């Protein structure tokens, strides 16, 4: 692989104009496609074949418009009054008529209708269900604003009214807004400090933006042909920008290193792509496998998200090994700070990187204490993970009209009214069967009430509304969904379905919970196989996988403490305390797996390279650490900034995921890769690099580029840096 990438880097350098033009044409082409071919993206989650999803399709078929978006407009009577008072009732009736005339609205129920009243038991409040003719994702901005304006006008006119429901929800910002811009600025600052050159930093950021732009625009174009979730592009942008910056950073850092060791720009570029590029390709493959592996869950929308994000990673890798060397051809020695451009300049690495050498010496000298401290800290942070709860029902934003509406409904009607369950009876004599079902449900614990809500004139389908006595996202309501289905199953009637947003949430959460162990086994198994191939060792892969498990536990533990328990939630600009989104854990595991393996490959490959050239086990750890750690720290800082930028102003779906990724990167880079891994490898000594003879047949991936020593002319090979690391006196002192 190293030899092939060496030739690819050389070809990209020599044909830099052609390579650059091709990538720019691809960028423009995806932009044109996004503008002309993009479609509407979904904002709701469901799984085809599940009972709740099947029921929704049948409701839409039997009743028509069953899939239209809805909103609950709540009206609270003035203090001391009732909604049934003539003056208040007249005002509510007129208001409902106005709601029914809003753009896109198909109907607005009258809460005072004697046949189907929706009035609180003490008559202190009532609510109207506003139904649109299109699903919630297809409701236009103008239609949604018209509803919110009508509520605000009524409130200003003295009517205490609020609105909730999916039709009233304004989509959260798909990008992080100003905070995300700050993340990009932080990335630029870190790159400028790392390179000591604004030109090199700007090039790094620009090539990453081209890559993530192609990926995101391509996904947007694809949305015109297949149904995609609205979170798919933002996940691709978030991950693609982070790895795009990092992959370019690794190659440019090696390029600058080669320049300072006497190579001309052409040979330096080829060597950088052949060595660092090999690590980039290997790391990229791990991320792609982890994301594509989301298909193991068997959930279409999750598979689409994983494949789309994986495609963005592929673009980032291709950019790093083709466009980056082409741009380096234009930059030449300007990739170096001005003070280092003169021939014979000394590479700062040759000065020993005293901070990182001291860090490595300290960790390897007190290796047992360092390893125990790292494990204990991450273990404590992981404790909340064991009480993590998930749901698809996300709380309304604090202080919003949706939150106030839900509070009124929960207080005046009951917590279950904001998430009613729907039971569909399909088939002949549906009304009588539905009435009987409602009676049997009424006797179940946890049911506030159950009653027939709608029936077809030909009596071939009917619906029962079931109101739980607990909140939609509570465990009690989840248990009630199972109790309802058990009652139906015991009756032996396969034409009765339990659905509604709460039931859908239960189905998706359980499907994800079942898939999570399989997925974890998959990615852990892939990590072991890949790392065994890369390092030709058994203990190094085990160390990497155990470190990854600590990273996952601590990232999800911290996220649970902040978003579910409410600890320090002001730091992430949220006041809600609720279960995490159902798909968050599996997405976080997939992304963090790839990124953790990135750091493992970049860090340990330099240690492996030093050991292969004769360094003792401890000296190999120290030498590899001081070479790779600065770049890994810079890469982690950039990724942290990019992910953290989506937290303060991101939408409710992205915010917890971005937070988990940000803290996961922090824990993995600082505690696992900078402390636990060097300490563990130092403890294992030579055994860390042992491979049983019965595995000697495994292919060699050559991430370090050893094959280049045989294929590159000897005069060039002799200039390769640090081929035979010599233990320093400081290493010998602490050995």
From TrEMBL:
Ranges where the SSD domain occurs: 217-330
Transmembrane segments: 21-42, 181-198, 205-226, 232-252, 273-301, 307-331, 366-386, 519-539, 546-568, 580-597, 628-647, 659-681
Keywords for the protein's UniProt record, in alphabetical order: Cell membrane, Membrane, Transmembrane, Transmembrane helix
Record localization: Cell membrane
Membrane topology: Multi-pass membrane protein
Transmembrane helix found in the keyword field: yes
InterPro entries named among the record's database cross-references: MMPL_dom (IPR004869), Mycobact_MmpL (IPR050545), SSD (IPR000731)
Keyword Ribosomal protein: no
Recorded family membership: Belongs to the resistance-nodulation-cell division (RND) (TC 2.A.6) family. MmpL subfamily.
Protein name according to UniProt: RND superfamily putative drug exporter
């Amino acid at each position: 692989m190293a030899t092939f990438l060496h030739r690819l880097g050389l070809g990209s350098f020599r044909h830099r104009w052609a390579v650059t033009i091709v990538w720019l044409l691809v960028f423009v082409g995806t932009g044109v496609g996004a503008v002309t071919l993009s479609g509407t993206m979904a904002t709701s989650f469901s799984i085809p074949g599940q009972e709740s999803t099947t029921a929704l399709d049948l409701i839409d078929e039997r009743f028509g418009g069953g899939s239209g978006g809805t909103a609950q407009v709540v009206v609270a009577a003035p203090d001391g009054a009732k909604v049934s008072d003539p003056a208040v009732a007249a005002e509510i009736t007129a208001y409902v008529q106005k709601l029914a005339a809003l753009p896109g609205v198909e109907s607005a129920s009258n809460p005072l209708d004697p046949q189907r009243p929706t009035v609180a038991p003490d008559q202190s409040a009532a609510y109207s269900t506003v139904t649109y003719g299109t699903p919630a994702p297809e409701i236009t901005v103008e239609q949604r604003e018209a509803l919110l304006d009508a509520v605000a006008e009524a409130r200003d006119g003295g009517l205490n009214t609020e609105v909730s429901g999916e039709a009233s929800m304004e989509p959260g910002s798909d990008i992080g807004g100003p905070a995300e811009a700050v993340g990009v600025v932080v990335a630029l600052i870190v790159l400028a400090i790392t390179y000591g050159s604004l030109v090199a930093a700007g090039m790094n950021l620009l090539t990453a933006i081209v890559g993530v732009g192609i990926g995101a625009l391509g996904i947007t174009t694809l949305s015109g042909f297949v149904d995609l979730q609205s979170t798919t592009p933002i996940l691709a942008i978030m991950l693609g920008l982070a790895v795009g910056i990092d992959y370019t950073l690794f190659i440019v850092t090696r390029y600058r290193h080669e320049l300072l060791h006497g190579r001309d720009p052409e040979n330096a570029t080829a060597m950088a792509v052949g060595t660092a590029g090999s690590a980039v390709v290997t790391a990229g493959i791990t991320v792609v496998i982890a994301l594509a592996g989301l298909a193991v869950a068997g959930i279409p929308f999750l598979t689409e998200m994983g494949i789309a994000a994986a495609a963005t990673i592929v673009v980032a890798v291709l950019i790093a090994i083709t466009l980056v060397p082409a741009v380096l051809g234009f930059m030449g020695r300007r990739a170096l700070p001005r003070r280092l451009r003169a021939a014979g300049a000394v590479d700062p690495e040759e000065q020993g990187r005293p901070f990182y050498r001291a860090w490595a010496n300290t960790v390897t000298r007190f290796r047992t204490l360092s390893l125990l401290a790292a494990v204990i800290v991450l273990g404590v942070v992981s404790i909340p993970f064991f009480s993590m709860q998930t749901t698809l029902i996300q709380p309304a934003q604090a202080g919003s009209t949706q939150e106030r509406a839900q509070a009124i409904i929960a207080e005046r009607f009951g917590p279950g009214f904001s998430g009613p369950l729907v039971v569909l009876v399909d088939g002949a004599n549906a009304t009588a069967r539905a009435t009987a079902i409602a009676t049997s449900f009424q006797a179940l614990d946890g049911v506030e009430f159950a009653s027939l809500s709608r029936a077809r004139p030909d009596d071939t389908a009917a619906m029962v509304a079931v109101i739980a006595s607990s909140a939609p996202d509570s465990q009690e309501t989840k248990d009630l969904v199972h109790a309802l289905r058990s009652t139906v199953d015991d009756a032996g009637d396969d034409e009765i379905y339990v659905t509604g947003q709460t039931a859908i949430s239960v189905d998706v959460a359980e499907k994800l919970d079942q898939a999570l162990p399989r997925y974890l086994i998959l990615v852990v198994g892939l990590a072991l196989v890949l790392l065994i191939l890369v390092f030709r060792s058994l203990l190094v892969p085990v160390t990497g996988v155990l470190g990854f498990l600590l990273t996952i536990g601590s990232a999800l533990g911290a996220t649970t403490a902040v978003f579910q328990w409410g600890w320090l939630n002001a730091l992430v600009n949220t006041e809600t305390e609720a279960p995490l989104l159902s798909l968050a854990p599996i997405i976080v595991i997939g992304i963090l797996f790839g990124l953790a393996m990135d750091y493992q490959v970049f860090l340990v490959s330099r240690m492996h390279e030093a050991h292969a050239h004769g360094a003792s086990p401890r000296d190999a750890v120290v030498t590899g650490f001081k070479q790779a750690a600065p770049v890994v720290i810079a890469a982690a800082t950039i990724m942290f900034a990019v992910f953290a930028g989506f937290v303060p102003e991101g939408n409710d779906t992205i915010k917890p995921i971005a937070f988990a990724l940000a803290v996961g990167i922090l824990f993995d880079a600082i505690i696992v890769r900078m402390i636990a891994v060097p300490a563990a490898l130092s403890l294992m000594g030579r055994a860390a690099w042992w491979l049983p003879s019965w595995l000697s047949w495994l292919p060699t991936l050559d991430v370090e580029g050893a094959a280049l020593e045989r294929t590159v002319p000897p005069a060039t090979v002799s200039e390769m840096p640090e081929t035979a690391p010599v233990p320093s006196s400081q290493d010998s002192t602490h050995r």
